[in-house]
Amino acid sequence: DTSKEVIIICHGLLSWRNQTLIANLASLLSSSSSSDESSNESSSSDYHTLRFDFTGNGHSSGSFSFAPHQSDYDDLNHVVNFVTD
Fold first, then answer.
1. Paired residues of 43 in beta bridges
2. Alpha-carbon Rg of the chain, whole angstroms?
3. pTM above 0.85, yes or no
4. Of 35, 34, 33, 74, which Cα lies nearest the Cα of 55?
């Protein structure tokens, strides 16, 4: 479904894609609706969300390392390319 924007959600250091905060954020973004109090109209702001584990975190393969961050950059670049292709 290309009718919706995609929001890529990245977890923080020593975290993973299914952390409660990350999962709840994705859920809210993918099915949220907001209300404009001045006009009493509701507008849907549904998005596709994509969560992933950086290498060495969560269920991903590989080894975790604090630095360099090139691996994280490469992971995110692969995800962005996946979404845009």
1. 34
2. 16
3. no
4. 74
